[in-house]
Give the backbone structure.
Amino acid sequence: MCNYKKAFTLLLYIGFSIASYAQNDSSFVKRIPQETSGQLNMDATYNRPFLQSGKMPIAIGGYMEANTQYISTNGVSDGFSFQFRRTNLFFSSTIAKKIRFFSELEFEDGTKEINLEAAFVDFEFDPIFNFRGGIIVNPIGAFNQNHDGPRWDFIDRPISATTIIPATLSNVGFGFLGKYFVDRWTLGYEAYLTNGFDDNITANEENRTSLAAGKSNPEKFEESNSGLPMFTGKLAVRNRKVGELGFSYMTGVYNKWKADGFVLDSKRSINVLAVDYTVMALKNKLNITGEAVKVFVDVPDTYSQTFGTEQLGAFVDIVGTVIQRPMLGWEKSKINLALRLEYADYNQGKFKETNGNIGDYIWAVVPGVAFRPVGTTVLRFNYRYQQQSDLLGNPPSKTGAIQFGISSYF
Amino acid sequence: MAILASCEKITPPLPADDELLDGPVEGLDEAQNRQHLLGDVAFNDQIFTNGTGLGPVFVATSCGSCHAGDGKGHPFTTLTRFGQVDSLGNKFLKLGGPQLQNRALPGYQPEQIPAGATFAKFTPPINSGLGFLELVPDADILALADPNDANDDGISGVPNWNTIPFYVVPTLNSIEKSGKYIGRFGKKGSVYNLLQQTVNAYNQDIGITSYFEPVDAYSLKEIDHEVSMQTVHDVVFYLQTLKAPIQRNQDDTEVILGKQVFNSINCAGCHTPTLKTSFSPVAALSSKEFHPYTDLLLHDMGSGLDDGYTEGSAKTYEWRTPPLWGLGLSPNSQGGQYFLLHDGRAKSIEEAILMHGGEAEQSRNKFNQLSEKDKDALIKFLKSL
C-alpha cells in the first residue's frame, strides 16, 4: 500500500506538472487522436484519449466515475449516498521502435482499494504476431477489456461481467496477440499464460462460488496459488459496418492442491467460456452490446452445494442516440436512451436432497438516459429494478435504485 | 426530504408485516435495537470460511443458511442426529455424536453415521417468536402436562427433563427435578434456552467453537474459540427479540370456521393456542400473552414417527409439539414448498395431519371424518397462522 501511495504521489506530480504547464501554454499538451478503424475490444487498452506533453516520451490518460444513488430493497433503504467509485490513471510510452509500455493504476472508492490493473510491455513484431508480458488484462469476454466508465451509458457495471467474470481481471503472465485485416474485416487473437485464481473461489464470505473472491489473492503477482499457469485465449472478428463478435476461453487449476511436497487435495479446475458481441445499426445511432458467460468449477462433492459447480450470466445493452446536435455550447453533444437487461445464475443445478432447482440468481432491468456533451464525458441517469433469489429459491428480494452519475476521461 | 419521498414511491414497497417472519418485536428501546442489529448481522451475514473456523466438518456455513428469512429450514440444511435411544444418554459422543456433519472442507471427509447408531433428521425450525417461548414459566408448562391422561382425552403430554450445560444459568422460577430442568427447544424439547441452542448450533452445525463449547466437532479436542462470547450473546438477543409471527386474515369467515374445527377435533389438545411470558428485563417481551399453538410438551406420536433416536428424557416416539405459528409462511423459506413434521417428510399440511399418530390419532381420525368444507377451512386457518 505504501509503495502504491508513493507511486500515486509521483503520478500526481507528473500529472499536475503537465497540467500546470498546459495552463501556460495549451499547445504544449496535445490529445493523441484515437484510432477508429479496425479496432477490436482487445485494443481498448490503447484506444483511449491519451494526452502527451511536448516531446515527453510518455502519454498519460485517465478517467473517473462518481454518482449518487438511492437504493431500496423490499422497502428498506439506507437513504441517499454519494459514491466516488473509481479513478484510473494510465500511462503509455514508446520505449524504442516496436517496444511499447503500458500501465494502469486504479483507485476504487477513494483510496479504499488501489490496484495495479495492468503493467505490460508489448513487442510489436508484426500486426499479426506480438508478444506481451507483465500484468495483462485477461481477454475473457469483452467488458473485462473494455470497461472504462465513460464508454458506458450505465452507472453500474454489468452484474455478470463483475460477479461471474470478475472485471477487472488481470494477472501476471506472458502471451501473444495479433490482428489480421481483410477488407472491412478485422480478425484478432490473444493467448496468454498467467497466474490464476486461488482457493477463495469456494471459500469466501459471499457464500457462493465466486471468481471475484478468487482473484483477490494479494500474492497473485508473486506466485501462482496452484503452481500451474492459467490459460486465457480469445478470438474476435469485426466488420467495420456491422460490429464485433468474440469468443473467449479461460482454464486453469485454482486450488492449492500441493504444499511443501505434500498433496492436500485434488487439482480443481475452472473453465470459463464467454461470447461477446457489438452490433452497430442506423448509421451507428443504435448500438447493441452484450456478453454471455458460462463457468464450470470443480467443487468437491463432499463440500456444500452452496458453492455451485456451474454459473451462467449475460447482459445486453441497447443504446440509441435520439438527439445529436449542438447543445449548451458543445458542438457534438448527444442524448442517448439506454436499456440494459441482465441476468446471473450463480449456482446452476439441483439439490441432491430434493432434486429441486437451486436458486441463487439475480436479474435486472435498467433503463436510462445519458447526455454526452462530448464523446469522452457522460452524465447518466439510471433506474434499476432488480430481483434476487436466495439459494433455496425463496421469493426474491426486490430492489429499486435511482442513480445519477458522471464519468469522464481527462 | 421531498426527493427521498419521491424515491420511495418508485422503489419496491415494504411487504406487509404479517407476510414476514423476520424483524424485531415491537417496543425495543434504542440500545436493544442496536444489539438486535448486531445479532442480526452475526446471524445472517457472518459467513464462515476455513479461514474463520468453518468445519472442517460442518452442515452449514452460517446461521442464516438454515433459517432463510428466519423461517423453517429446507431439506438442504436438514440436520441428522444419531446415537441416543433412551434417556440414559448418547452412546456415540466419542464417535461424533450427537450430530452428523455431512459436509467437509476440500481435503477432508465428512462424518459418517457410525455402525449401530440409529438416527433422525431434523428440519431447522422458524426463529420467530423464540424469545416468547423461552419466557414461558416452567409452572405453566407443567400445568399443561397430563402424564396419566387424567382427563381421559387420549393426550398425555410430559416435559423433557434434561441436564443443562455448565454455562446455562436456570431462570429464577425454574423447576428442578433430580438436577434436571425442563427443556423447551429442539424437536425433542431437550434444550433449555436459546443460549444453549445457539452454542450447540455454532458448534454442531458450523463447526465453530466458543468459550461455551470449546470442543471441535472434528478433532473432538478443545481448541481456540472461533466466535466471541459477545457475538454469541448478540445472536441470542437477536433470537430472543424476533417478533412473534402475525396471523393473517383473522376475520375471514373460512378462517374463523377453521379455528372452530381446530378446536372441535382437539388439535388444541397439544397445539395450545395461547401462552404467557413471565417477567423479562426486555419490556417488549415481559408478561405478554402470545399465540404459538404449542404446549412445549412431549407427546407420543406413534410408531410411524418413531425414528429410533431421542434426546433428554424423551422416548424415541415422543416429539415436542411444534409451534404452528408461521406455518402458512413456511413455503417462503422452504423454496416455495412445504417440508413439514420433524424431518420435512410431509409435503403439505394435510399430509402432515395424516401422519399424526399416537396421542394425535383421535384427532387425525376426526379430521378424516370432516366434510371437505371443514377440511378446507381448517387448512385455511392453519395457513393463516
About this structure: Chain B touches chain A at residues 3-4, 7-8, 10-15, 46-47, 49-51, 54, 58, 60-62, 65, 68-69, 74-76, 78, 103-110, 332-337 (CB under 8 Å). The CA atoms of residues 161 and 178 of chain B lie 9 Å apart.
